[in-house]
């Protein structure tokens, strides 16, 4: 008896046609990551992911490839296998990102990204470059979705602007950036000339969706909560730098939606 493989395959139906991706940050100093144990937690709200997980959006052409290497120990006259073990646990995932943003850029590039801050106009206009527009001090009551500013500072931002929210650089060394490590400094910079450094590298960015008389409302929540002393600046572009010495680290969760 023979079975037509095409006929057998025709009875197979896909359980899902799209994949949704989520990222969680890794605390680089401690090595701790945000866990998700499906056996213990059971539920993962795709529209409101648990704290610490960020929606990367829908992805396409998802493929997972096992790259774990196995080895074995042999003994006896015939060289029979007595022990098998994993010499290198590893897996690879490949996918396309149809939506674009700061986190998507981070995953696609894998190296350091920088935020190009809006600068003061040169007088008279000439060449390029300039001094970044000073940050707007964040006011009490701000949240990951709403940035409260004074009325005079609020007028400097429009709906559709991309804004960055983070602290002034004060000379610290180590990992910097709210929400997720964005860079590592092994030696201090000059705070008087590099006060905007953290805002130039941080992942704590979002787009302004609307304005109220006292605040900016954000299209997507910030990955790091605003704290006292943070400032807001407008971002005009993102750039990445191949060959930088900083390597990112993320946890990933990929869900096939039925």
Notes on the protein architecture:
With 258 residues, the chain is mainly beta. The chain has two domains: 84 residues, no CATH class; 125 residues, no CATH class. The strands form four sheets. Strands 7, 8, 9, 10, 13, 14 and 15 form a seven-stranded antiparallel beta sheet that branches. A hairpin with a 4-residue loop joins strand 4 and strand 5. It is globular, with a radius of gyration of 24 Å. The mean pLDDT is 85.
Radius of gyration: 24 Å
User: What value does the average pLDDT take?
Assistant: 85
Number of domains: 2
How many beta-strand segments? 16
> Any low-confidence stretches, pLDDT <50, length ≥5?
none
Percent strand equals 35-45%
Total count of helical runs of at least 4 residues: 5
Distance between the termini: 35 Å
The proportion of residues forming helix, as a percent range, comes to 10-25%
Task: Describe the structure concisely.
The protein has helices at residues 5-10, 38-41, 102-109, 151-154, 197-201; strands at residues 18-27, 32-33, 53-66, 69-75, 80-88, 91-96, 113-117, 136-137, 146-148, 162-166, 174-176, 183-185, 205-211, 215-218, 231-240, 250-257.
